[in-house]
Amino acid sequence: MKIFLVGGFLGSGKTTAIAAACRLLMARGHRVGVITNDQGEQQVDTLTMTKLGIPAREVAGGCFCCNYDQFDAHVRSLEAENLPQFVFAESVGTCTDLAATIVLPLAKFRPDVDVVICIFADAAFLASLLEGSATFVEESVRYIYKKQLEEADLIVINKSDLITEDQKEMIRDLLGEEYSGKSYLFQNSTADSDVEQWLNQLQTMKAAGLVLDIDYNTYGDGEARMAWLDKRVVIEDNAGKAADAVRKIMEAIFRRISEERLLIGHLKFFIDAGNWARKISFTASSNDFHRFTTDAADRIELLINARVQTDPRRLTRIVDDVIENMHATGRSITPGPWSAFVPGFPRPTHRMAN
Q: How far is the C-alpha of 90 from the C-alpha of 118, rounded, in Å?
């Protein structure tokens, strides 16, 4: 069995790429599994994989590193029930130090498993960071971002269809200077040919097990700069226009966060109308909002996952204000489980050196 540890900052397109890769592998008769991961307890990514018919498990309430035993239990569960040839393990977008806390422990306790660390980077966001133009990003957040790239066996510069050839050349030059010798590729994860290339490269690689020199105080501070908000709501509309209300909610939350000039790590929505479902994502540099079609629906369950560089109270106020303003005659909006917080200090279960 091969495990692809897929890391990279919030909003880099990991979930889209993994779903596309699983679809291609399953079409060829390969068995796959996915382990999702988040600091929160309600994950859009897990729902997305399940709806696509992909065997999935989730590590919730903390990163893989700090929940190694749960991570390993999920690997064994997938082995027992699905016998996967390939497992994609998508780490929290603010997680780093995967070699010391996951790869080397697996090498010690599970030598039968091959592992590769693949780090995704949003092409436009990476270009702005390398150029030094992304001044809105806190220094400790940049620290995490750069450490993720440093430990990669393979760097995937994702959403490359959204940048110019000049920007690609600049990224090549700067990667050569800062991450000399690293394998990398440019990818559009909505193109099967690009995903095929990624899969082919992953299957030929093994983890280098590069243990980083990590300042955990800076790492912890970087994670604490991001607010996490998970919220479920049920929208019911007598005129069958629940989807129209959802569209307005998504637009308004994105607009409010953007107007307040807050960095969006990711803003994900899972829309479940019973007979149809959609996942919609917004990031600092792109969104797939144009894919949302307002099919008729009397009732929709909406799950919101927001990861934004701000404090939890401010993020909660923005989301609650938007939802409150969406009440109308003939429409009810019922709140469900929710949480808003900053991640706790990272305390890995294991941290090993070569």
A: 10
Residues 13, 288 contacting (CB under 8 angstroms): no
Q: Which tokens is 341 given?
A: 């917080």
The 10 Å Cβ neighbour count of residue 85 is 14
The 10s digit of each residue's pLDDT in 127-185 is 887 776 655 578 999 899 999 999 999 999 999 999 999 999 999 998 898 898 899 99
What are the angstrom distances between the C-alpha of 142 and each of 49, 123, 128, 145, 296? 29, 15, 12, 5, 43
Torsional sign, CA 232, 242, 327, 324: positive
pLDDT surpassing 80 at residue 329: yes
| Annotated domain spans of the chain | 2-223, 226-341
Rg (CA), the chain: 20
The domain covering 2-223 belongs, at the CATH homologous superfamily level, to P-loop containing nucleotide triphosphate hydrolases (3.40.50.300)
Return the C-alpha torsion angle 42, 46, 48, 49, nearest 10: -170
pLDDT digits (tens, 9 = 90+) for 305-319: 999 999 999 999 999
CATH topology identical between 2-223 and 226-341? no
What fold, for 226-341? Alpha-Beta Plaits (3.30.70)
- Tens of pLDDT, residue by residue over 177-220, are 889 889 999 999 999 999 999 999 999 998 998 999 999 999 99
Beta strands 154-158 and 183-187, pairing class: parallel
